[in-house]
Design a protein that fits this description.
There is one protein chain. About 40% of the residues lie in helices and about 30% in strands. The chain is built from three helices and four strands, in the order E-H-E-E-H-H-E. A hairpin with a 7-residue loop joins strand 2 and strand 3. The longest helix has 20 residues. The radius of gyration is 14 Å and the shape is globular. It starts with a strand and ends in a 9-residue tail after the last strand. The relative contact order is 0.30.
């Protein structure tokens, strides 16, 4: 199992709009295509104006396959066109749970 952490640093003042767009349409598309949704978060302390999502996959190959299928969807491409102007930078990390992790 792997966990993908995706951090989006949002243009100052635009985080509520990004969260609203995900809540209204984006997360439903992602959940259908990606499965393994662990959660979405905003930052209270630290790098503010950040939206973070966590997704679990059985393997790197599953992640690649699911992400490719998501990118192929027209409705996802339309959603991306609406949120991209709100995002300043993005960082992705692949996390590998320790053997004693509750999600391992």
């Amino acid at each position: 199992m792997i966990v993908e952490q995706r951090d989006y640093h949002v243009v100052t003042g635009k985080l509520p709009e990004l969260v609203r767009l995900y809540a209204e349409e984006g997360i439903a598309i992602q959940r259908e295509m990606l499965g393994g949704f662990l959660g979405a978060f905003t930052t209270d302390v630290g790098a503010l104006s950040t939206y973070t999502s966590l997704w679990s996959y059985e393997s790197h190959a599953e992640r690649e396959s699911r992400r490719a299928a998501l990118q192929a969807r027209e409705d996802w491409q339309q959603f991306l066109a609406r949120i991209q102007p709100l995002i300043h930078t993005q960082q992705n990390r692949i996390l590998v749970p320790t053997p004693f992790s509750p999600i391992a």
